[in-house]
Amino acid sequence: MLGANSDLAPSSLGRYIVTLRQVLDFAEVEPNPARDKRVKLPRVESPEIEPPSGEQVEASSPTSRSVVVFRCGTRADRDAGR
User: What pTM, to 2 d.p., does this model score?
Assistant: First the structure.
């Protein structure tokens, strides 16, 4: 795997490999080694976001509560109208 021993973040490594692919494409290098199927990039791990519990929403201020209801409740409201 590319970058297994790298100090770079997976997203930075991904940007660098994209740039390298474009440079080699522009230079008309055939075959482009940066586009080889064996080039594996590390996965970018995104943190799992946990929504607030009902108790946390009830304990929040009315302004915060309306934002939470708007952000979390719009899909349920839309689906209920079907």
Answer: 0.51
